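**Fold tokens**
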Amino acid sequence: MEENLKRLNKFIGETGYCSRREADKIIEEGRVTINGVVPELGTKVSPDDEVRIDGKLIREKREKSIYLAFNKPVGIECTTNLEVRGNIVDYINYPTRIFPIGRLDKASEGLIFMTNDGDIVNKILRARNNHEKEYTVTVNKLITDRFIEKMSNGVPILDTVTRKCKVEKISSTTFKIILTQGLNRQIRRMTEYLGYDVIALKRIRIINISLDIPVGRFRDLTDAEIKELNELIEPSSKTEEASFPKPERTEAPKRRTEFIKRDDPRFKGRGDY
């Protein structure tokens, strides 16, 4: 019987309702019940259990997993909260419930993944400090050699120094940058520290997937792309998970901040560039 049990957050993620991280949040908020009882984080469920979110029964996913590459326009917010005007879910209007992997801020445009697979969301976010994301950025004044050097070697923001990265000048006011970390509004904060303002920011690649569709359009990832993506994220996601073992829960669940310090730069404002 034990092999049929799943952690509640994994069960919810596999239904396509949301990612595992979002599932942890709604469990903490008391919005989830198992057989009419509000559970703790870490609880396991069986196929026979009745799991509800906000009173609505959910079922384990049976349909095919969906993986989309979407070229997000400026002004669209990467949120699944349908009460937010201009949310990404309503904009795409996909017939099956999907959600974004990571974030791209409202003022930025470009590539973002959409899926109903909570497992791949969990893997990519665990591997966030190991995979590349590539951007083109236009700023408000002439780009100097000093600017390229400083951006490449690390800029002090958010009580840390950014990791060294690849930066290449494209024109007098546009550069390309490849990041392997995801601090909050990282590129904008880096350029602001050096006295520049971002005029336009576009993400053109995530790991092995490059942007190849018009603004506002989406496409399915190919089987080959999905296979390669999984091969690339699997080792790094496992390594990071092993680096931060989850403590055994013998009492009521405690918040993550009791195990990982808030000033750890790896956990400061993830993914909203």
Observations:
- Residues 223-243 form the longest helix (21 residues).
- The two ends are 44 Å apart (CA to CA).
